[in-house]
Amino acid sequence: MALLDVLGLITASPTLLLLVSSITLFTAYAVVHTFFIRRLPSNAPPEVRDNVPISGAIGFWTERWSWFRRRRDQSKTGNFSFHAGPNTIVALSGDKGRQLFFDSKDLGFAEGYAVLFGQAPKVKAHDDGEGKDDDLNNHFSRRLTYLLKNEQFRKKLPTLISDTQEAIDAIRDDPTGVTNPFDTLYRIVFRLTIRMVGPDEIADDPKLLEETLQYFEMIDNSATATSVMFPKLPSPAVLKRTYAGTRLYFMLENIIKKRAASDEKHDDALQYMLDQGDRTYKVVEFIVGALFAGLLNSGINAAWVMCYLATSPEWLAKAQAEVRNTASKYARDPTAPLRYQLDDVPLEAWEAEFPVIDMCLRDSIRLNLLGTAMRRNISGKAIPTGNGNEVIPPDAFVTYATGDIHLDPEIYIDPHKWDPSRYLPERGEDKKKSVHGFVGWGVGRHPCLGMRFAKLEQNIITAYFIASFDFQLQDKHGSKLAVAPQIDFNRHSAHKPKDSLFLKVAPREK
Ligand code: HEM
């Protein structure tokens, strides 16, 4: 058919004309976007070959770690470039890349996460203008630092312990004798986190706690690839996030109004923020931010540690001995059941006298801190990577996949296996590298602000659980598991296992 005939056919049918015009326009846009708008400077790390027009590299979303490793191994320097929608991203790897990533003051932390993690709900629209307003990052770190200080831990310890005991009693009283740790232990962590960073009204009320958790999970699930690449598109994920953020806003506003009307003064994080003059939207942003920073990692690891202990008689025996020894040092009644002896352990001992549980947590974090850490070049200049003339372009986002170090078989022997003995002085695998050989608690310019609290709650939950139960791991059919299942290393963050895991528990009386 001659070209003129084809043109004639198209122009004769309005539908066909519309279709062909749309395809032509889209193709033109894709060409301009790919070759002009998002063109990388020639000295940026090499662009990956699957950096498709418009959306960029799909592998970054679908199989993050496997994709990252393949692309890293194909690049001479180990660094490479790609796009996520309109965002240019440079991936760093290796010792030099890791050091630059974690130590450079030119790489902004919040600026990276704000766009590439894409979870924060926009609640400022509800602002009533009352109270003080200041820079978000500054505000967040200042409030969190105050709320996670020693005096707060000392004040809150009895409540953290009674919340934990209440949850352990509920597991003891459950007639099935089976518990899903990714549900029950995760919920303890959620409640303890709210105790430290939110209002008592939520921490004290199971219904409000449940509602808050649901809104948080809605916001967490909204970080889809589309919502990160095209945040202005009103996708279902973005709508859900907005809804959850709004509900949280009104829930807190209600609590604040009730407090004001009753002249009640509480001794909790919300009261502290109100006394500082914080606006409601700042309080919401703070609580959601603290939950993102703390809940997933702490909650998921608390559950995994128990699954790992259930399948490791050697480490369970060590942890039990540690709990017994520490409890007996402080117990006023050394003949009481172990779980009651723990009630007398002081804050200092909770923080310093559980090195075995600490090693168990450390290897769980190594396995569960998934995906990539995020940054953005905020210097306004190109940043040299230290490999010839290779640079991170101005404004580019920067990622580092934690698996690059945590799953490196040269450093961590048999890296996919949970094995706390790798941290014993004679092995010291996390000390093999001179720079940042373990990044599980953050390193360099952004060490974890919640580490002390996370370790404290981990020690409390693990010790009370071990003191209260004998337990074994089982799958959803009730079959005993001798080995904990493998984690999906391609996920973007710590997550609950796809196939639910359960602990069969038998209460201990001694
Ligand atoms: C097992 C539990 C936890 C783990 C494994 C963990 C891990 C980390 C890591 C790896 C970083 C650095 C991220 C990066 O460099 O991109 C970090 C930073 C941070 N963490 Fe944690 N974290 C935990 C619990 C918590 C808790 C409970 C809180 C607070 C409630 C918290 C608050 C923060 C904050 C605010 C930062 C950012 C620090 C900054 O801006 O410089 N974390 N954490």
Q: Which of globular, elongated, flat, extended, rod-shaped describes the shape?
A: globular
Mean pLDDT across every amino acid position: 91
Q: For the record, what is the CATH homologous superfamily label?
A: Cytochrome P450
Architecture, CATH level 2? Orthogonal Bundle
Major sheet characteristics: 5 strands, mixed
Low-confidence stretches: none
CATH topology: Cytochrome p450
Total DSSP E strands: 12
The total tally of domains equals 1
Counting helices, strands and paired strands, the structural category is: alpha+beta
List the ligand species: protoporphyrin IX containing FE
Keywords:
binds protoporphyrin IX containing FE; Cyt_P450_E_grp-IV; five-stranded mixed sheet; Cytochrome p450; alpha+beta; 510 residues; three-stranded antiparallel sheet
Provide structural commentary.
Belongs to the cytochrome P450 family. The chain has one domain: Cytochrome P450 (Cytochrome p450, Orthogonal Bundle), CATH 1.10.630. 54% of the residues lie in helices and 9% in strands. The protein is built from 21 helices and twelve strands. It has a five-stranded mixed beta sheet with strand order 3-4-10-7-5. Strands 6-12-11 form a three-stranded antiparallel beta sheet. The chain has a two-stranded antiparallel ribbon with strand order 1-2. Helix 13 packs across helix 15. The termini are far apart. The model has no long low-confidence stretch (mean pLDDT 91). The structure holds protoporphyrin IX containing FE. Protoporphyrin IX containing FE binds next to helix 7, helix 9, helix 15 and helix 21. The site of protoporphyrin IX containing FE has 23 residues, from helix 7, helix 9, helix 15 and helix 21.
